[in-house]
Specification:
The complex is a heterodimer. By secondary structure, chain A is of the alpha+beta class. Helix content of chain A is 30%, strand content 28%. Chain B has seven helices and 18 strands. In chain B, helix 3 (199-218) crosses helix 6 (248-259). Classes of the chains: A alpha+beta, B alpha+beta. At the A-B interface, strand 1, helix 1, helix 7, helix 8 and strand 12 of A face strand 1, helix 1, helix 2, strand 14 and strand 15 of B.
Chain lengths: 331, 335
């Protein structure tokens, strides 16, 4: 049966193709997938490329922390001409109750991500036309050494004592005075020997819809693109959960934080790259149409034979498109 | 299983091609000139395309695309003929020697002194022409840069930096990209300038009648007699001057088809839009993320410029069926 029964254009993306695109992104833009404080960013050199163990024969760089997992990257990323970062540098994680004067080193890394357009059919969690994405997230916190902890405590006490002694200075004003904070070595990030890391398998469930989006550069006007929505995120690492049973609230809170992290940070960047690529392919890099200045708009109709459009079927994301072409004069 | 499947229906392609051939988009406009000597012909042409509901016809075995009976409607098709007959002077010969070594000459009359002597415009805007093309749909790979990914990235970076140093901005021209191209390669062309061949003889006869009438109006009978004596007959003279053979239709057809190369002009227009030019093109590797910030834009502070993310298109195939064309492609894994 033809692909284009009753429609103009049919497009299908196999999950393997999307996963290949994600794999290229992971290797060439590792900073999209890896986040950490300055010390962790400085510690990324400790992995020899292709090895999952830190180098031991080099002197350890002062005030650097090894990330949780080796970062896979393409050789051109570290080429001296571009010297791209392996991690995105983040501010330290603030310690509650310290007025933001103390923070902790941390790393959050998405070490694996893959789309599955054929979720398990028996799983009730999945509804029709949903996709699944398996994500491995590793994270770790730099727990301070006793010595560093004491130093931080001293710095805070000295600062607070100084502010108390100054009748003309409130604590709020003191916290705003960067020069003053600097004099007391604040804010402080207590040194840790290493990150305390853990990894979790996360399952993301979602839908794909078409949304309005600014037209990409191309001969055809394509004002829409597919958008990957997240409906649910669950920790799916039974071994980890069974071995270390945690209160449900803690698991839920952890899931919540990971969901927010994926929704606001990693997922939009990765999904938008894929979505834009699909939109560009649909806009057809076609010199003929470019010459003619022809514009086209698309519609994704649904019918009894095509109840979902876009549709997730047989490991593919499928789109059934009606195309309306117009000459520059509008005829 | 391919990573990308893109199918376009024959009806969809016909919609797109109809738009491409809309008079506001595609016109045949030219002013070819043929100037072999005394005889000059110049055309002023402006035409648009018309066609039936199914112009593009997909053929499955073998995979071919037929552009079927595309009409060319000539909104303007003026053929301007100019004939510069060599000057002919009668008389002026020496009747008797004069006293001082000169001559007493007979009166002299010269003809055909103007340039050109005869001008005619033949309006052919009422005719229609027709084109049919049978073409193969082929996949090709164009290499405009090294296939080494890293070196290509270096080349692109350096080319942009060179442009910046020269005070210019991108993009790089020609672009440093390799492309998969799907192109139509014509197998057979059939261009019929005159949709109804029989009409041509009348046109030529009319042309000759008008030339003769003009000459008869200009020349006295005795001059016609002289011309006839010189050239045998006026018609034969004109035939010689215009290089008209026995078949008048063939002559005019040659003028339009060969000397002015109107079919070549039509083909050039079709080339620009449909033929022998990629109808689908995709860069390899395909850019998923551009340089950030883009090459040519400054970076902020000491931030590095993030390299682009491009994915290799390893295979690209085309399958033509009766009702649709199916393109499949594979995206290479990171290695």
């Amino acid at each position: 049966m033809p692909y284009t029964d009753n429609i103009d254009v049919y497009g299908a993306l196999h999950e393997d193709g999307i996963n290949n695109v994600i794999d290229h992104l992971r290797h060439k833009r590792p900073s999209l997938f890896n986040y950490g404080t300055a010390r962790v960013v400085a510690g990324t050199h400790r992995f020899r490329r292709g090895s999952d163990t830190p180098l031991t024969h080099r002197p350890r760089r002062v005030q650097s922390l090894t990330p949780c997992e080796e970062i896979a990257y393409a050789p051109e990323v570290r080429d001296r001409r571009w010297n791209n970062p392996l991690m995105t540098e983040e501010d330290p994680l603030p310690v509650i109750g310290t007025d933001g004067l103390v923070g902790l080193d941390f790393a959050v890394q998405v070490t694996d991500m893959g789309i599955d357009f054929a979720p398990p059919s028996g799983d009730e969690a999945f509804k029709e036309n949903q996709y699944a994405a398996d994500v491995t997230v590793c994270a770790g916190l730099g727990c301070p050494t006793d010595e560093a902890f004491d130093d931080a405590l001293n710095a805070i006490e000295q600062f607070r004592g100084y502010v108390n002694d100054r009748e003309d200075l409130s604590l709020a004003e003191g916290l705003e005075d960067e020069n003053l904070l600097q004099e007391f070595g604040l804010p402080v990030v207590p040194l840790a020997d290493s990150l305390h890391c853990f990894c979790l398998e996360i399952s993301v469930i979602g839908r794909v819809t078409m949304v309005d989006r600014p037209t990409v550069e191309g001969p055809l006007t394509i004002p829409q693109s597919p958008k990957f929505h997240i409906d649910d995120i669950r920790i799916t690492d039974p071994e980890a959960i069974e071995e270390f049973p945690l209160p449900q609230g803690l698991v839920s809170s952890l899931e919540c934080y990971i969901e927010v992290f994926l929704r606001l940070s990693v997922f939009p960047s990765v999904a938008e790259s894929v979505e834009r690529t699909v939109q560009q392919v649909l806009s057809m890099q076609n010199p003929v149409l470019t010459l003619a200045g022809v514009t086209a708009t698309i519609e994704l109709p649904t019918s009894s034979s095509v109840p979902h459009n876009p549709a997730i079927e047989e490991d593919e994301l499928r789109m059934y498109v009606d195309i309306d072409v117009a000459a520059p004069g509008g005829s | 299983m391919s990573d990308l499947t893109l199918a376009v229906s024959e009806a969809g392609v016909n919609d797109i091609v109809s738009t491409l051939l809309d008079p506001s988009v595609a016109r045949v406009q030219a002013a070819p000139r043929y100037d072999p000597g005394a005889f000059t012909v110049e055309a002023d042409i402006d035409a648009h395309f018309e066609h039936g509901p199914t112009l593009i016809d997909f053929r499955d075995t073998p995979d071919q695309v037929k552009l079927d009976e595309l009409d060319i409607v000539w909104d303007t098709f003026d053929l301007d003929f100019e004939l510069d007959i060599p000057e002919l002077c009668i008389g002026g010969f020496c009747l008797t020697p004069g006293w001082f070594g000169d001559c007493i000459r007979a009166p002299e009359k010269c003809f055909f002194s103007s340039d050109p002597d005869v001008e005619l415009t033949l309006a052919l805007d009422w005719i229609r022409s027709e084109v049919s093309v049978l073409a193969d749909l082929l996949v090709g790979y164009s290499t405009n840069r090294t296939t080494d990914y890293l070196q290509a990235q270096v080349d692109e970076h350096e080319a942009l930096e060179a442009l910046e140093a020269a005070g210019e901005s991108g993009p790089i021209d020609p672009p440093l990209v390799n492309t998969w191209d799907v192109s139509l390669h014509p197998d057979t062309f059939d261009i019929d300038i005159f949709d109804t061949a029989d009409m041509i003889a009348d046109i030529v006869q009319d042309l000759l009648d008008r030339i003769i009438d003009m000459l008869v109006g200009v020349l006295p009978d005795w001059a016609i007699d002289v011309l006839e004596s010189l050239a045998g007959s006026l018609v034969r003279f004109l035939r010689n001057a215009l290089d008209i053979g026995d078949d008048l239709a063939e002559w005019l057809s040659d003028i339009i088809g060969v000397s002015l190369d109107v079919p070549g002009i039509i083909l050039e227009i079709l080339d620009d839009y449909l033929i022998d030019y990629p109808v689908f093109r995709i860069e390899d590797p395909y850019p998923v993320l551009d340089w950030s910030p883009p090459l040519g834009s400054p970076t902020t502070g000491g931030d590095p410029r993030l390299i682009p993310v491009k994915v290799p298109i390893e295979e690209l195939d085309i399958d033509l069926q009766e009702t649709e064309v199916v393109l499949t492609a594979s995206i290479g894994a990171y290695q």
